[in-house]
């Protein structure tokens, strides 16, 4: 039977009169990668802080690893791994020392932490930097070290808050590989991100949060099927010359942006041929499959909210 590691019902977090998390229901199952996807300020990090037992809930029910964070916080934290948004490594210590010192916080013996540090440096591909200080390491190396450090206690549940923010594409893909390996080994992952490709690559299931509420829930494929079409036709025009008037009936949904028109349709090539037959001549055109980004923007909007 599937074991539920995190269960929340009507979970709420308030800061004074501001309600950052507004009564959400969440279930995370053992062995899966679960994602919280949403724009900045959606409530993702507040939810993660409650799950990691460092911020008390304001209302609702929350159980983590079968326990109540209000009464069993230390026991839960001992079985969690946490990767914060910002790396909080000790820059004056070496890579090896960062792992060994952190392991001692969990009561591991000196021999055990030395052995664990060697294992985790291999996992993070940092063995050749074992005795180098952390400060001059690249952002990708520091991020891999932060993840390796979170594994020193062999956690059952690993919480990653925006794990690849600020990394270049090569570092992001290497980090995705490390996380995929962790999931294969049986570690349950909870990930917050605002990168659509990251959510599609890593998450078995996810929720899209907006304004402290859950706007949609499901696998990436399910969300695309429910909230988008099979394909999207992008017609690009010079700024100010785009219009949906000639093509509005060629797709299930049409969206006008400052430099292009998006047609959400089951057959992008057919829609493009029909547009050309009507004399529509864009500067360029592109037929692509619908993505999680299309779902995200439909559910949360294209306007930035600070």
Give a summary of the structure in a few sentences.
With 306 residues, this protein is of the alpha/beta class. The chain has helices spanning 44-51, 69-77, 95-105, 110-123, 139-150, 169-184, 196-202, 220-227, 268-277, 292-300, and strands at 4-15, 18-29, 33-37, 59-64, 80-83, 157-161, 188-193, 205-210, 213-218, 231-236, 253-256, 260-265, 284-289.
Description:
The chain contains ten helices and 13 strands. The protein has two domains: 221 residues, P-loop containing nucleotide triphosphate hydrolases (Rossmann fold, 3-Layer(aba) Sandwich); 62 residues, Alpha-Beta Plaits, CATH 3.30.70. 34% of the residues lie in helices and 27% in strands. It is globular and about 75 Å long. The chain has a six-stranded mixed sheet, sandwiched between helices. It has a four-stranded antiparallel sheet with strand order 11-12-10-13, with helices on one face. By secondary structure, the protein is α/β, with parallel strands linked by helices. It starts with a strand and ends in a 6-residue tail after the last helix. Helix 3 packs across helix 4 and helix 8 packs across helix 10.
């Amino acid at each position: 039977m599937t074991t539920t590691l995190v269960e929340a019902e009507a979970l709420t977090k308030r800061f004074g009169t501001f309600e950052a998390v507004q009564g959400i229901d969440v279930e995370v199952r053992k062995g899966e990668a679960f994602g919280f996807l949403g724009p900045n300020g959606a409530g993702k990090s507040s939810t993660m802080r409650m799950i990691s037992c460092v911020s008390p809930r304001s209302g609702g029910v929350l159980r983590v690893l079968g326990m109540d964070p209000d009464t069993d916080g230390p026991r839960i934290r001992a079985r969690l791994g946490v990767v914060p948004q910002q790396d909080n490594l000790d820059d004056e210590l070496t890579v090896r020392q960062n792992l060994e010192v952190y392991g001692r916080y969990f009561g591991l013996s000196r021999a055990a932490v030395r052995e664990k540090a060697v294992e985790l440096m291999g996992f993070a591909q940092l063995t050749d930097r074992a005795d180098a200080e952390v400060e001059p390491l690249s952002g990708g190396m520091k991020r891999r070290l932060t993840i390796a450090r979170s594994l020193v206690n062999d956690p059952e549940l690993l919480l990653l808050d925006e794990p690849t923010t600020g990394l270049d594409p090569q570092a992001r893909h290497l980090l995705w590989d490390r996380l995929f390996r962790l999931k294969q080994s049986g570690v349950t992952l909870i990930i917050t991100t605002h990168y659509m490709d990251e959510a599609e690559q890593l998450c078995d299931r996810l929720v899209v949060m907006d304004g402290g509420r859950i706007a949609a829930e499901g696998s990436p494929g399910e969300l695309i099927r429910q909230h988008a079409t099979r394909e999207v036709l992008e017609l690009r025009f010079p700024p100010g010359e785009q219009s949906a008037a000639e093509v509005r009936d060629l797709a299930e949904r049409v969206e006008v942006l400052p430099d292009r028109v998006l047609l959400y349709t089951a057959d992008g090539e057919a829609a493009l041929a029909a547009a050309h037959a009507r004399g529509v001549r864009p500067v360029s055109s592109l037929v692509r499959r619908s993505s999680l980004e299309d779902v995200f923007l439909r559910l949360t909007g294209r306007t930035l909210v600070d």
